[in-house]
Specification:
disordered N terminus; 4-stranded antiparallel sheet; 34% strand; globular; 3 domains
Length: 340
């Protein structure tokens, strides 16, 4: 190092330092500013102890410390793979699936593909959960914002899945093609549902392991294309559990009731249960509600009873899970066979 400096002018040294700093800035590696005086050698000689340091000496010291810092920084950066700092606790990497994990110092994140972008928040401990819609791209980009305003980006690759076609006949015609007279009602009810699913709460109930909300036969699955009385309609976004009217429905996890409506046009008796940080459960076609808006419920607590209200041909529970407005597949949240 001394040999190199000896052969270089002060101007050349500064030029080299500037180039090195620029290169590290381009690589997004931050250098911690330091006071060169703190690095000057102590000298017990009273004649030179307080002797002013000229620019050339400072340049040499700065250069030496900078190069040492760069090697240490580069070594640390190479060892710390950003993706390795994300701890994944649970994941279902398919459309309709989700990722639950932990990232220290995480404040927020954004999940994006060519179709959508959705923001989310981390808990104070850095826990996060996000999901993918039915028709999500198979490449999903997660960009996390950390407490120091730096960002970390990670790509998740999803596996494709096929969806079945459900042909449902015998549905009341008014619920397949509703008359103009009820469109205002439908719009109002949809607005209430939208607000509930977009609710921002800091509850950490979503971190629980979910349980099945009812026992019965699986009569409908997430993602299937619905054809009512021969008319193609939107895909099905829930998990249907068929059982006799009056069968108990329990809370799959702790939460707060944000919607408790006895008779919505499409969904009949409807409950939305907020689990926090954008995660909510919806229960529809219920014959009876045992809770009201604002109630706090615990996992396993009775919230209602199975019915066939709204657009339904037989008694069943249509259970849905949302991450904000993104509809997720409830089957990924519970142990297989737990409905039996």
């Amino acid at each position: 190092m001394k040999a190199f400096l000896k052969g270089q002018s002060h101007k050349a040294n500064n030029k080299f330092i500037n180039r090195v700093v620029w290169a590290f800035n381009q690589a997004n590696i931050r250098l911690t500013p330091f006071n060169t005086a703190a690095w000057l050698p102590l000298n017990s000689d009273s004649k030179t102890a307080n002797k002013p340091i000229n620019n050339k000496t400072v340049s040499k010291l700065t250069f030496s410390v900078l190069i040492s810092s760069l090697f240490l920084t580069a070594s640390h950066t190479a060892l710390a793979n950003p993706a390795d700092t994300i701890k994944i606790n649970q994941q279902a990497l398919q459309p309709g699936g989700f990722v639950k994990g932990q990232l220290n110092n995480c404040l927020s994140y954004q999940i994006s593909d060519s179709q959508t972008q959705q923001q989310g928040k981390c808990t104070q401990e850095g826990a996060f959960l996000f999901g993918f819609g039915r028709d999500a791209d198979l490449t999903q980009t997660a960009t996390f914002t950390l407490a120091d305003n730096s960002t970390l980006t990670h790509t998740f690759t999803l596996q494709s899945r096929d969806y079945k076609i459900d042909r449902v006949n015998g549905v009341p015609s008014k619920t397949v093609n509703p008359p103009q007279s009820v469109l205002d009602r439908i719009s109002k009810e949809n607005g209430e549902i939208w607000l509930a699913r977009n609710k921002e709460s800091n509850s950490k109930d979503f971190l629980q392991s979910f349980i099945w909300p009812a026992k019965g036969r699986i009569s409908g699955v997430y993602g299937s294309q619905r054809v009512f009385n021969g008319t193609p309609k939107r895909p099905h976004f829930g998990l249907d559990i068929a059982a006799p009217t009056g069968t108990q429905i329990i809370a799959p996890a702790d939460g707060v009731i944000t919607v408790a409506h006895p008779d919505m046009f499409y969904s009949g008796g409807t409950i939305i249960l907020d689990h926090g940080f954008g995660i909510s459960s919806t229960f529809i076609h219920m014959s009876k509600l045992h809770v009201k808006k604002g109630d706090t419920v615990k996992q396993g607590e009775l919230i209602g009873e199975i019915g066939k209200t709204g657009r339904a041909t037989g008694p069943h529970l249509d259970w849905r899970i949302n991450w904000y407005q993104i509809r997720l597949d409830p089957a990924f949240w519970v142990p297989a066979g737990g409905h039996q």
